[in-house]
């Protein structure tokens, strides 16, 4: 099997982890590709909660879901991912973040390290037993460099008795190349 690009690897992990009836979160909806992938995985009895602050993200994602008749499986929320616990009360099996900015939109509306760290802490508190948190880190812009620094330090200090932490990164690509942080909570 060939080594997968960052987002492909994230989707492969989600495919292996998320099943019918699961509750999951797309913390950074963007153009809706992660939301759509999750909607396919959770089936008719599952639920995807997807967050973004930009109306364009919700419109694009809604159109993708409508094209495959999957909109009933998703709750699209125009809100910061920092507030995900205000909308999601139950434990979830998986959460994905794709950091940075909405491709094709205003690059000044990028995720920011302080808010991202708050959202990641919220995400960890929502994970059920064996829950999976995926964070695609794009650090080719100034806000991304700060996010990389803060997130790498944060995940490195997570308790090894509670979490497994993986960093998936191609070492021989031109810098700054994106990478994936995968954090799995141990089963209770």
Q: Could you explain the architecture of this structure?
A:
With 188 residues, the protein is an alpha/beta fold. It has one domain: Rossmann fold (3-Layer(aba) Sandwich), CATH 3.40.50.150. It has helices at 6-17, 33-42, 55-67, 113-126, 142-156; strands spanning 23-26, 47-52, 74-78, 92-98, 127-137, 163-168, 179-185. β4, α4 (113-126) and β5 form a beta-alpha-beta unit. α4 (113-126) packs parallel to α5. It is globular, with a radius of gyration of 15 Å. The N and C termini lie far apart (32 Å). The mean pLDDT is 93.
Features:
5 helices, 188 residues, seven-stranded mixed sheet, MnmM_MeTrfase, rRNA methyltransferase, SAM-dependent_MTases_sf, globular, transferase, methyltransferase activity, alpha/beta
How does the SSE layout of this entry go?
Elements: H1 6-17, E1 23-26, H2 33-42, E2 47-52, H3 55-67, E3 74-78, E4 92-98, H4 113-126, E5 127-137, H5 142-156, E6 163-168, E7 179-185
Parallel strand pairs: 1-2, 1-4, 2-3, 4-5
Antiparallel strand pairs: 5-7, 6-7
Shape: globular
Q: Give a quick account of the main beta sheet: strands, pairing sense, barrel closure.
A: 7 strands, mixed
CATH homologous superfamily descriptor: Vaccinia Virus protein VP39
The value of Rg in angstroms is: 15 Å
Individual helix count: 5
CATH topology: Rossmann fold
Encode the helix/strand succession as letters. Answer: HEHEHEEHEHEE
Low-confidence stretches: none
